Amino acid sequence: MALLKVLVVLGALACGVFGVNNGLARTPQMGWVLSNSPEVHNLDFNANCHAQNNWNALGCDVSESLLLDTAKELVHSGLRDLGYEYVVLDDCWSSGRGEDGFIRADAKKFPNGMEYVADQIHDLGLLYGMYSSAGEMTCARYDFEMQDAQSIASWGADYLKYDNCYHRGRFGTPEISFNRYRVMWDALNATGRPILYSLCNWGEDYSHTWGMSIANSWRVSGDIYDSFTRPDDLCTCSDPANPHCIAPGSHCSVINIINKVAPYVDRGQPGGWNDLDMLEVGNGGMTDDEYKAHFSMWAALKSPLLMGNDLRTLSASALTILNNPAVIAISQDPVGRSAIRIRRDLNVAKDKYGVGEAHVWSGPLYGGDQVVIFLNVGIEELQMSASLEEIFTADGPEGSAPQVRETWEVYDLWANRMDQSAAQAILDAPIDSVEKTFEKIDWYNATTLTYLDGLKHGDARLLGKKIEIIEPTGTLTATVPRHGVAMFRLRSPNNGGWRKSHINDEL
After folding, report:
1. Rounded to 5 degrees, what are φ and ψ at 334?
2. Count of Cβ atoms closer than 10 Å to residue 296 Cβ
3. pLDDT for 178-214, tens place per residue?
4. Does the active-site annotation cover 163?
5. The one catalytic residue among 163, 275, 277, 369
6. What digits encode the pLDDT tens for the residues 19-60?
7. Among 148, 223, 226, 275, the one annotated catalytic
């Protein structure tokens, strides 16, 4: 019996079963989502769904036409074909519950019902997501999980974002929060429909330690807002060593969230991911370099890539960030391992908010490749570098990793960014001619060639542009713009770089 137990444990490790085993989110989910902040006004405690302010792009303005128009834009812009497949509804979709306890969709906003919306989205080759909360209000009510799961499944939903609003004190220990969110996990599984389960408890009660047991992703912080570095009292949690700090809430900058997740980025694994909140790209509060850095870090840290903008007014510059296949390939890499921070320098010129630091991040990729990111959070352009000893420190400290003694080709992952004129042509093209436009520029299509197959075949569109070679024991150096990033894929020309892996290649 003891031998059998050992074999079972070793078998589990060999199969690389890390996150929940519902067959979903083997790489971080991608798509578009409406999102909100926890600030609420005009509360009516007799209602189940309330208007909220300060939403990323659209707030409580949800409707059937909005979702279907957005789904069509995902197709028209080519983003669906790069892997952005989920269209996720947020709050304000319900008019309350019936006497039978089942939640009802707002007939004015969704005149044809939720099943119709799901069918229309599915017909476009996309997946449909919905929203609820493990609390007392906002389109939810605790203790109705079985009814809500049955409704969500019967409507054809493929995704549930489960929020944390109005939990009435049901938190304070990991076990309390785990048990509260597990009820919906069990209810969803009981429906028999595969539904991606996304926890949104703002990182309370160490969700990064238990989220992977019941969910496909779990939020690690308060709500993001469209700022690269600006501190805000509504997001006072800035010390990752103190997960119980007050008010995880909202108005969390990109850098605040990156620094918060840095100590446990390794908790994300195939099937379950640290959720750094949605992408702000295109909402207008950051510069182009800041949005590039934001997108690059979310991809490298294996956060879900869920756009929080209005796709109906998407700009060409935003599209050329969101549709970079060389960066998306880092997110969707089959190894499923986050980059880790190997250096943090606080002796950097500060910006107007008193924030200034520089990071080096590094992580393993499929086929023995390595991603390296230089992140400049300072106010001035920086010359940054990292030795192979540093880059491969996770494979062996103090230069003991075998990769240090190999030659590496360096590929710039932003060098082949789509030209803005090409992006504008896509956005301006009539629907019936979009396919020809994409064929002309030969852009990557993950629906015809998966990222795994593209990497296996060495597809140049996923690799970036080769810019240099690093000799054994050498150093990678780059000039990084203020509030910007330089991002590279390292490849061994001698078929080196292979490392031990507990991830099944079949994934």
Report:
1. -65, -20
2. 26
3. 999 999 999 999 999 999 999 988 888 889 999 999 9
4. yes
5. 163
6. 677 999 999 999 999 754 333 333 332 333 333 323 444 556
7. 223
